[in-house]
Amino acid sequence: MDNTSVAQRDIDLLAKARTGSNAAFEELQRFYSPRLYRRIYSITRNREDAEDALQDTFLRAFTALDSFQGRSQFSSWLTRIAINTTLMMIRRRRVYPRASFEHQAGFGEGFDSFDIADVALSPEQICMRKQRYCAILRAIEGLNPKLRSVVAILVASDCSMQEVAHALNVSLPAVKSRLHRARKRLSRYRE
């Protein structure tokens, strides 16, 4: 199926889902689940967490169908929901640390202990991240305006390269080239 027919199929299914057709939403869910699962799993690296986040993604998408305005592709909108849902799940996990309830030898009979893993960043790590973030922002601001505009659009909105090319009124190869040059100049600020 080419992009045009996928987009048209999405529009048709969305219209039906908005009128209350569960079958239409289930069809969208069946089509996008594998792709979203792979994206979520790449973030969580955990099958159970990825499945939970995927289910939550579709629940959030279903409740927010009326807010989809069609300014981007449905797949982009759904992917953004999936990424945000997954990141929120990871943040929640940092706030509520995990505990290990395994019996530890050496404490005598009848005494079980557990360790709580501290997953919070140390003050040094927080400081280093802030410094790196500021350095990256300064580096982005220092980019040539043509390169900076491509990076700014991609960071500000979850859209395809084709949509960036259309927004900047340039060709797709020009966008790819500018993004490549910008990444090359910013690569020294990566972790």
How would you portray this structure in words?
It contains eight helices and two strands. It is mostly helical. It folds into two domains: 1-100 and 114-119, Rna Polymerase Sigma Factor, Chain: A (Orthogonal Bundle); 121-191, Arc Repressor Mutant, subunit A (Orthogonal Bundle), CATH 1.10.10. It has a two-stranded antiparallel sheet with strand order 1-2. α3 (47-63) crosses α4, α6 (145-156) packs across α8 (172-186) and α7 packs across α8.
List keywords for this structure.
191 residues, Rna Polymerase Sigma Factor, Chain: A, flat, 2 domains, two-stranded antiparallel ribbon, 2 strands, Arc Repressor Mutant, subunit A, 8 helices
